[in-house]
Design a protein that fits this description.
Blueprint: E1 3-5, H1 15-21, E2 30-32, H2 50-61, H3 67-77, E3 90-93, E4 96-100, H4 110-114, H5 117-127, E5 133-139, H6 143-152, E6 158-165, H7 171-178, E7 185-190, H8 194-206, H9 208-216, E8 219-223, H10 229-248, E9 258-263, H11 268-278, E10 283-290, H12 295-302, E11 304-306, H13 327-334, H14 339-352, E12 354-356, H15 359-363, E13 368-372, H16 375-389, H17 395-411, E14 416-421, H18 429-435, H19 445-456, H20 462-469, E15 476-478, H21 483-491
Parallel strand pairs: 4-14, 5-6, 5-8, 6-7, 7-15, 9-10, 9-14, 10-13
Antiparallel strand pairs: 1-2, 3-4, 11-12
Helix pairs in contact: 1-5, 2-3, 2-10, 3-5, 10-11, 16-17, 16-18, 18-19
Bound molecules: pyridoxal-5'-phosphate.
Length: 493
């Protein structure tokens, strides 16, 4: 299986080269030449461990990795860093199935891909005889940064630099990042939002002069953001695994269609569900759930993607995004894999902040439906699900849970609904406690976690205990326009 750029400027990349490279040299995203099929029917995967199912999915995409390499990456990634052997359990609450993706080291779904990406990348460097030190440059809306650092910390041959919006992450998220261990980790707060960080990181990837300076020092950039195909592919695996678990629990019959709702920011998680569908997994509707930054909701409703609007900081900060990078991969499919058309749309986006797709293109994505929940609705949903279904969900999951309810009310569709549950409520305890009607006055972020644990009866995750004692190690801040300078300072170039 080879990879090509959505913008036509790169083709015939092996999977390992695409992973090593991150963003394609022409600024596009790597996509597989075609969608592989599942190697066997989901009902034949019943009883398999998560790691086995992941292997069956990953080998279809990452075909230049040997079986031994892939299995080794998978075993190192999905081990006791996760607090359950199931890795990604499905649980039924009320009339909804939740796919819990927050059992990894940093208690958010980014762990699902970022615990394996460093291993895939180091293996890719070895396979391609690349001796350069790999510098991972990452923009984070809160969860990616910590999960990427946890994955790359002290991995030989790598360094990682994370930029986060100083006023756009939860107190707990910031604490998690600034206490990160590992001599090869660097964390920088910026005075901008996630889009500011992501745009400038992408610019650095595309800067030839900078690449040459790095190369002279034996360094090369790569990406741990979901623009890296090595992050997307491991996410496909959990949708397949979830379907298998639903079969095992007799919630569905072989071949039965399920719907999936995903709380969406950069469009990586829901795109993985779409890829799973292309592989033959029986998924019907893909419900894209947005918060008040509902640029995707508007896109699915009108065909116009328009980022020209105020940016709102919400209680679901990992979805506070106006430029959803991975939508470009869907756009590529929408325009019949026409790289010239894709480039033209991306050009419009860069120059005018918007683009409009044709009716014919919209027909190709009729399986998607956009819904959104504002801040009031999100809090109400946390409250409702706790009161009625006895389940505490975080604000991101609540946005999706509300969208799933709205979709079902509107459509009457009775198919089994799987909602991606993307973070532990402990990570956002202030918002969750307020939604549950508790007062948080005068409490520190960690006291809030304890309070939430008590009120809701949920256990305190290991990840919380870890940051409780950990000293703050990172104190770097910069102006958003000084990001490149900061990178050069850190790397000594
Ligand atoms: C990153 C993140 C999301 C959004 O996922 P995308 O793949 O960027 O669409 C949703 N919820 C949580 C908790 C996240 O960390």
């Amino acid at each position: 299986m080879n990879y090509r750029s959505t913008r036509g400027g790169a083709k015939d990349y092996s999977a390992s080269m695409a992973i090593l490279q991150g963003l394609a040299p022409d600024g596009g995203l790597f996509v597989p030449d075609e969608f592989p099929k599942l190697p066997c029917a989901p009902e034949q995967m019943k009883g398999l461990r998560y790691q086995e199912i992941a292997y069956l999915v990953l080998k279809q995409f990452l075909s230049d990795y040997t079986e031994e390499e892939l299995r080794s990456c998978i075993e190192k990634a999905y081990d006791d860093k996760f607090d359950t052997e199931e890795i990604a359990p499905v649980v039924k609450k009320g009339n909804t199935w939740y796919l819990e993706l927050f059992h990894g080291a940093t208690i958010a779904f980014k762990d699902m891909a970022l615990s394996i990406l460093p291993h895939l990348m180091v293996t890719a460097a070895r396979k391609n005889h690349c001796d350069d030190e790999i510098v991972i440059l990452t923009a984070t809306s809160g969860d990616t940064g910590k999960a990427a650092m946890a994955g790359f910390a002290d991995v030989p041959g790598t360094r990682i630099i994370v930029f986060y919006p100083q006023d756009g992450v939860s107190a707990f998220q910031e604490r998690q990042m600034r206490t990160q261990k590992g001599d090869n980790t660097y964390v920088v707060g910026i005075d901008g939002n996630f889009d500011d960080a992501q745009t400038r990181v992408k610019q650095m990837f595309g800067d030839r002069e900078l690449a040459q300076k790095l190369s002279a020092k034996g360094l090369r950039f790569s990406s741990a953001n979901s623009i890296n195909i090595g992050r997307l592919v491991p996410q496909v695996a959990y949708y397949v695994a979830a379907y298998v678990r639903l079969l095992e629990k007799d919630a569905i019959k072989p071949g039965e269609t399920i719907n999936v709702t995903v709380p969406t920011g950069n469009f990586g998680n829901i795109l993985a569900a779409y890829y799973a569908k292309q592989m033959g997994l029986p998924i019907g509707k893909l419900i894209c759930a947005s918060n008040e930054n509902k640029v995707l909701y508007d896109f699915f409703a009108t065909g116009c993607y328009d980022k020209n609007r105020p940016f709102t900081v919400t209680s679901s900060p990992s979805m506070d995004i106006l430029v959803s990078s991975n939508l470009e991969r869907l756009l590529f499919e929408m325009c019949g894999r026409d790289a010239a058309a894709d480039s033209a749309y991306m050009n419009d986006l860069r120059e005018t902040g918007k683009y409009t797709v044709t009716l014919q293109m919209r027909e190709k994505i009729a399986d998607f439906a956009g819904f959104y929940a504002d801040e009031t609705r999100t809090a109400e949903q946390i409250h409702r699900v706790y009161e009625q279904d006895g389940y505490v969900i975080d604000p991101h999951t609540a946005v999706a849970s509300a969208a799933a309810d709205d979709y079902r009310a509107e459509s009457g569709d009775r198919a089994v609904m799987l909602v991606a549950s993307t973070a532990s409520p402990c990570k956002f305890s202030a918002s969750v406690l307020r939604a549950l009607g508790e007062t948080t006055e005068g409490m520190s972020d960690l006291q809030m976690v304890d309070c939430l644990a008590k009120v809701s009866g949920i256990g305190i995750p290991r990840a919380v205990e870890e940051v409780r004692e950990a000293p703050v190690r990172h104190n770097r801040f910069c102006d958003k326009d000084a990001m490149q300078q900061t990178v050069c300072e850190i790397l000594g170039v």
